Amino acid sequence: MALGNLTSKAVSLYDEWIKNADPRVEGYPLMASPFPQTIIIAAYIYFVTNLGPKFMENRKPFELRQLMVVYNFGVVALSVYLTYEFLMSGWATGYSFRCDIVDYSWSPMALRMVRVCWLYYFSKFIELLDTVFFVLRKKNGQVTFLHVFHHSIMPWTWWFGVKFAAGGLGTFHGMINAIVHVIMYTYYALSSLGPSFHKYLWWKKHMTSIQLIQFIMVTFHIGQIYYMDNCPYQYPIFMFIIGLYGLVFLILFLHFWYHAYTKGKRPPKCIKNGIGKNKAE
Hints:
Shape: globular
Radius of gyration: 20 Å
Strand content: under 5%
Order of helices and strands: HHHHHHHHH
Structural class: mainly alpha
Number of strands: 0
Helix content: 55-70%
Distance between the termini: 47 Å
Number of helices: 9
Number of domains: 1
Oligomer: single chain
């Protein structure tokens, strides 16, 4: 009886909570409930950490070069489009880069922001293929905790952002991440074309710097909310989560930078040159 009452209360609280969701995202795939995406992410974690490596244990690695060329250039094109849409739906057309609250209206501009937020969220599921390719190519050393954690937490947390706050200053890090992905996946795409293109990848050494700049920008932008007077952003908890995320990855990459460049040590295999092994965007 006690368990039944507890379950009933939990369901009631969930129903009450979900009533506050943005009605404009009704009908978008995966947005009805957080449970379908949770199942997908759990299956992804199980495959890349357990099932996949066991399946490949006594098999030769797959040759996926052509598929990876298409995939990487596809992500580049998608990231360019996401960047453009983030800019056109607010960041280049009226946002102040300070206290930008969510526009919950049904105006064309507000709905455009909703669409790009959902598409960015969905792109995180496409990027799960990064790890699947690692496993199928038997690059298990690249399936690090940092890599899997990052690829898992991004879509899961962005569901809540899209469901309740599709717009405003909480979307800044999505736009910056899309810009960084244009650069990163261009590198991956050229690299996957083969050794003849490696001479064009002289800028590999700057990838860590680009990632550091990303996390610094995100952390400082979100941090503004604690210094602005009377900023009526609708979901301050999202700002805390984004700020914490940016700060954690900023510390991780500063740690890498210190050991790789300041102390002159060989970069750790898991994040050599800040890319490749983790793809921690």
